[in-house]
Every structure is written in structure tokens, then in C-alpha cells.
Amino acid sequence: MGMSKVDDGEIKPDADLRDRLDLMETKLRKMRDTRGSLNDGAHRFADQRNAIQQRYKEHRTALDEKLEERKAIRELIRQHKERRNSIQEQMKDLFGRQKTNRSNEKGARSAAGEYNKLKAEIAALEVRMETSGNISLEKEKGFLKDIKNMHRRIEELEPEVQQFEMVKVDLSDMDAAIATLKAEADLSHQAMLEQVKLADAMSEEMDEMFSERDFLKAEGDRLHTAFVEEKEKANEVHAKIVELMSQVTEIRKELDVQREERKSWMTDHNAAVAAEMLTGNQDDSVAESLVENFLAQGELSMGGTLSGDSTGRAGRRKKNKRGTSFSANRSGPAKK
Predict the structure, then answer these.
(1) What's the pLDDT score for residue 325?
(2) How far is CA 162 from CA 89, 118, 155, 156, 165, in A?
(3) Are strands 333-334 and 325-326 parallel, antiparallel or unpaired?
(4) Tell me, what DSSP letter sits at residue 310?
(5) Which of 77, 123, 170, 279 is most buried per CB count within 10 Å?
(6) Residue 325 backbone phi and psi in degrees, to 5
(7) pLDDT in tens, 94-104
(8) Residues 319, 325: contact at Cβ < 8 Å?
(9) CB 37 within 8 A of CB 31
């Protein structure tokens, strides 16, 4: 603004303060623009971050579903593998039974082999009892006792063999039983390989999904860091604005004080000038002041006696054109 003038043309003494105020207000506008720009940038980063984080959540959901699918495939692989191994163990038992004497293989027989053998023996005894008509009562009782003991042993073996899916074969025909077990083992092995292929194909897809997940996570972190940095910069500028605003407020208060002082001074000055311009007929106090001044100078006495009249008489009388004389006092014109 520079220096300005009051109504009577005098220059204001606060020009420096107003110049400082102008500079500070200009700086404030620029700082507010900077703060607004930083806040806008922070909001853009926040919007981008939120969008990336939403994509990350959706991607994580899809990834978790794929992980569950792969877990199920691996469980199938494990089941097929265990079934194949169980069947192969049965085959080993049957091969061993073909090569060795049954009386010598009893102690070395696996749980699966013993389980199947007992089942076959029970079935054979039941068939013999039903079809043979020359079995004595005593021998039949022995068969029933043997069947009962074998059922008890089967019950003991069941917890051990139930963890695998057993293949029921007819042990009366070893070659057919071995062929059946081999076919079942091959089927389980083939099913396992198919699941392995699915797991391998899924691994490539999941590697891409893991890479995408890592990228989204890193991008979200980067945008969040950028948001925080922009927000911190905006907060720093805001703190400076607050500090500068306090200084602007102080200057404005000082200008207001000076303005009030000038106003008060001009009011007093104008009142004094107006008082000096008053005449005696406008103000009794002015008239009394003039009288006192004349008396002090000896030019006027309260009784109408002039200072140069030594006789103390009423003073010389002067006649006007009409013959009326006036005295020196303020009592009015004197009559002849």
C-alpha cells in the first residue's frame, strides 16, 4: 500500500508497517497455495494407494483360494501315493507267500497280509462247513472255535490296516490276486501322477500370482510413503503459516493502535482550532477572557474609567452625529 493520507492531507507514519504487512500477506498467499498443492498431492497418493490396496485384497482372496485348491490336490497326491504303497505291500506279501512255506512266513507277515489271509481262511472254513456233509460234531466245534479266534485277531488288526484303503482279493487264486493288486496299484499311481501334473501346472500360475501379490504390496507401501511425505510437508507449511499469521495479527493490532492514536490526536486538534476561532458573541467564556485581557492591559476598567484619566471622572464623552455621547464603560450611551 505504501504511505497513505488522512483527510487533512497529512502523511501516515505507519508506511513501514503497511509495507511489511503487504509482503507478509503476499507470502501467506503463496504459502497457502503451496500447502493446498501439497494436500492435493497427498490426496492423489492416498486415492492411488487405496485403489492398489483394494486390488491387493481381491488378489489375496483369489490367491488364498488357489492355495486351498493346491492343498486339496496335494492331499489327493498323498492319498493316492499311500494307497499305491499299501497295495504294493500286499503284493509283496503275496509274492512272499508263493516263495516260502506258510508255516515259516507267519512271523514275517505284514498286518495287511495277515488281515487278508485270515479273511480268506475264515471264508474257506465257512464254505467247507456248509458243503461238507461228513464233518463230525467235534470237528465242527473246532472249526467254529478257529473262526472265532481269527475274527478276534482281525479285530485287533483292523485299527492298523484301516489307515490304508485295502483291496479285497481272493487268496485262493494267488495269480489272480496279484494281477488285481498290480492293476489297482497302477491305477493309484496314475491318479497320483495326474494330480502331480495339476500341481505342477498350478505352481507356474501361482508363481505369477505371488509376483503380482508382492508387486501390489510394494506399490501400496510406496504410495503410502509418498502420501505421508506430502502430508508432512503440508503440515510443515501449515505450521509456518500459523506462525506468520500471528505476526500479521500483531502488525494489524499495532496499525489499529496507531490509527486510534491519530484519530484521537486529530479530534483534539480540531477541537482546539475550533475553540480558538470562537468569538465573544459565540461563547461567554471567550468574552470573559477578552475582558480580562483588556483589563490586564489597562485599556478597560470595570467602572468605565480609562487608564489615562487621572481625575477619576466618568471619562470624556464623545458625541455622535446626532449629538449622543458615549461613555467608556459598557453601560450604554449617556444622555445629555
Answers:
(1) 42
(2) 14, 15, 11, 11, 7
(3) antiparallel
(4) T
(5) 77
(6) -105, 155
(7) 777 656 544 44
(8) yes
(9) no
Q: Is the pTM of this model over 0.85?
A: no
Question: What is the structure's pLDDT at 146?
Answer: 87
Alpha helices in the chain (DSSP H): 15-99, 111-131, 137-161, 174-276, 284-296
Phi-psi region of 319 (alpha: psi -120 to 50; beta: other; left: phi over 0): beta
pLDDT higher than 60, residue 304? no
Q: Where are the domains of the chain?
A: 21-239
Q: In what order do the strands lie in the sheet with 318-319?
A: 318-319, 325-326, 333-334
- The letter for the amino acid at 186 is D
Residue 334 dihedral angles phi and psi, to the nearest 5°: -90, 145
